[in-house]
Amino acid sequence: MTGRKGADDRLRRILALVPWVAAHDGPTVDEVCARFGLTPDQLEQDLEQLFLCGLYPFTPDTLIEVDVADGRVWIRYADVFARPLRLTPAEGLALLASAEALLAGPDEDRDPVLERGLAKLAALLGIDPDETVDISLAPAPPESLVALRAAVADRRQVEIDYFSYGRNEWTTRIIDPLQVFNAAGRWYVAAYCHAVEDRRLFRLDRIGRTVVLETTFEPQREPVSHTTFDPRPHDPMVELELAPRARWVSEQYPNEGVEELPDGRTLVRLRISERGWLERLLLRLGPDVKVVSGDAEVGPAAAARLLRRYQTEPLP
Amino acid sequence: MERLERLINLVAALLAAERPLSRDEIDRRVPGYSGDHASATSARRAFERDKEVLRDMGIPLLMEAIDPSNPDSPPGYRIPRDEYYLPDPDLTPDELAALHVAVTTVRLEGLGAAEAIWKLGGTKAPSAAPDPLAALPGSEHLPVLFQAVAERRVVVFSYRDGARCLEPHRLAFRNGHWYASGRDADKDEPRSFRVDRIASDVALGPPQAFERPVDAAAPPPPPWEMGDEEPIEARLLVEADQVPWVTGEVGEGANVERRPDGSAVVTLRVTNRGAFRSFALGLLDRGEVLGPPELRDEMVSWLRGLADEGAR
Lengths: 316, 312
Fold this sequence. Notes:
heterodimer, A: alpha+beta, Arc Repressor Mutant, subunit A, SH3 type barrels, 5-stranded antiparallel beta sheet, 4-stranded antiparallel beta sheet, B: Arc Repressor Mutant, subunit A, 4 domains, 13 strands
């Protein structure tokens, strides 16, 4: 199956590569490789596929001609592949959405070159991008965004007040901010946290006070992980029985297994690193979820705690 | 004959043909479908598989009557050049490079941005690769919905409570989710649907089927306004430390009344009480539904039902 997928990827690449090489007068092998993300060996293999390709009756004048000499490559008699295949809707959307997201991003200086590229692309796809695709990376760009991005660039330490959603409490910590990024509509800063002496992700909309310090930190080599939820093997496990309406839980969160039960119900096993997270899930799902194994008191205790707020009537 | 060669030759033959080619003609013109080694059934299977591969790639492989003046003539296959060939978008090298930077810094899951850049001529990777800035979740339904928006096709799909028929005016990404919004053709009113809650394939109608209204650009409503229920003005008390987060969620235009102690009362128009309840519960004990009494009572009985579970 993977072999077949690999062959399909090669076909896509060849159908894009042939028109480009044919339209240019002997580009260098290095340039073709750089443009199409290939090694010279892969390019050679792709070109070999073309030696017997062309049109019936496959006489020399109807065969595609491939020449490789002096580090340059020529493709001739490929008129039938004069243009690449049209963009699929998925490809058009990928380009458009990425460009729109970047232009709607935090950088004050919108790149006019990208704006022009986006406009030409939209014309090609026959749409008005402002009218038809609208990307908002986050509800509102947090105030700390600009300060943290600058701190990443300058390698300055930052002191933050952070609300831990999972533990439902505020703490103050000093971090070495490594990268600011957006995942699924939320801004995060990946940082080395001196309080826990380890890397952590912090959601920008849960950062309160932000003070950029004078102290700098050394750059770190290890790549930054964008995994926003990373269950650890020693986290306690709960098994939840979900009503059909709550099936999305088993699709949305990383889990340790899903079983189908009668009547469209499902059983999902989740590792829970923080109690507050489970409290919210159970409170929101209400009667659509049953804790089959694990601490069955989490939901009822949280509900009782919230109810205490409602014992006295609010002031008008 | 290798499969890849056979596919390239098949595309070439169908692109070059001036009229649809019959299966026999394809067998003669494309090596690999006939000959000593291929039995008739395995050749037929190979052709069926290849056809699917090409269609999955987005190649417009049509099956039509070979003689257009006689609809009863036997069917053949062709790839219309004007539907296959990508018109030249006339991008300058720096514009293409900027688009390349865009797709490497903002990634959409599973949407084939690399292939798109190849088709536009490919571009060299920037010498200093930019840090990825954002990752947007994908969905199997996005490409077909995008096509429907671009070509103004009506779509039909099943969603929660049944089949929906939508004139899709636009796609939006908000709060981490994709929304398709437009006119609900059955109810004749504007609607937004969360793409990840679409529970079936999305069926496409014919192109250019409707006009997109000029005011289509309104953003999708927040979850608590995505419903049919009788509108109610909810008042939610938010403790001071949660105010920045909540004001970000409800948007800039929302009615937020700040109190001297730093807390705030947010007034929201609610037409989906379940979604409002979920939003309020996200605050745990740092928020409280103040009113109206009807909504406050609903929250109390919801919580009481859950608290009593533990007592049993």
